[in-house]
Amino acid sequence: MAAQAQAAVKVLGAHHSSWNKSYELLAADDKRRGLVRWDHTIEYHPQHVVAVLQDMFDRAGQRHDEETLRQYREALRVVFHENIHLLAAAGTSYGMAVDAYQEPSNKVLEEAATELATQDALDDYIDELDLEAIAPGITGVRTGRAYGQYVPAVEVFGQAVADSAELSAREVIRRLAGVNPENKFRVAAQLLYDAHKLSEVVPEAAKAAALERIESAMRPPFATIRDFDPEDPLDVRMSALAGTRASLDADAEVREIAEYWSANHELRRSLDAGLGASPPLRKPQYGTPSRDTRPNEPGATGRPDRKPHVLGGLTVRWCGYGGGRWRRHRRQLRRATERGGGCGERRNAAESGGGCCKRRNAVVVAAGRLEAVVAAVSGGRLLKAGAVAGVWSSV
Hints:
- The protein is mostly helical.
- Helix content is 46%, strand content 8%.
- It contains twelve helices and eleven strands.
- It has helices spanning 4-12, 46-58, 66-85, 104-128, 151-165, 169-177, 184-195, 207-223, 233-263, 265-272, 323-338, 388-392; strands at 16-17, 23-25, 34-36, 42-44, 87-88, 309-311, 314-316, 351-352, 355-356, 373-376, 381-384.
- The strands form five sheets. The protein has a three-stranded mixed sheet. Strands 1-5 form a two-stranded antiparallel sheet.
- The chain is elongated, with a radius of gyration of 27 Å.
- The N and C termini lie far apart (61 Å).
């Protein structure tokens, strides 16, 4: 047991294992074969795992029938699977993802990627531990897969990512397995980001937001299969479709990001020049404007606050206006928002310091002050600019 964690680290090329070098026994009537607690303790079933492996070592070097070898291999599959859960990247641990794991999409990807990595590399794990000498023929038998309701989705998804990244599907799964549940979608997003050479068009300041968008596009199809039944053939088939949908949605998001930044050369230059800008945070949220929407909270004075507000689907921050000038611009903006556009021509267009902007998802610009904060390009994302004129010219 002492070598189980380091063997998993070596076989999958992970940074480290979070295992605390302690394992305990599940209850004898527990249907599970193994689990990892959030304190990094492993629990194994006393009969189906611990007793089986003890028998294998007690009879080391002996020849066994195929059924006995399958029992040994299944017990080792459980050991490897649980140790893969504990793999983590530098500066992280499995336990740090306790909240992230509760998200349905994260749970699905965590369990399926872990099981696929187990199946892909179990023979390598056995070789690393030199167990073929203990149970001759064990690498020649096969066992079933756990999480049959999740595996098809991640199998299809992993292959699609591999095709884009010009990697093997096994390599993609290995990379996903080497990080904790919180970071798996980020690994997949990074692979697509690099494969499509987004770094050539996306400013470095906008990279994190772009990766977040790709992650967000992948998640929903996986979340829908969280409660699927591994014994239901229809659920298993639908699982594969979820993987296809996730890969298509991710590719669409990548294309949208590439097209957006390719078309906004001035904004790219502004960000690259270090104007203190923050990249767009999220995709546009379209909605019906409310007549009750106000830039200020009830009871506020004529001076605007600096909290963000949603106006006709735009998230805006205010700065700089005061007195009657502020009230005039507030009224103009509210009227423009309520009729669905500054010119009545485009949805979510907004007043821009006196004139109207006909661009869809336009920005709100609040005077030419250095601390001006505008709700930006591509739909209600926030962009802090050093000079409004420079940003406005790029919209």
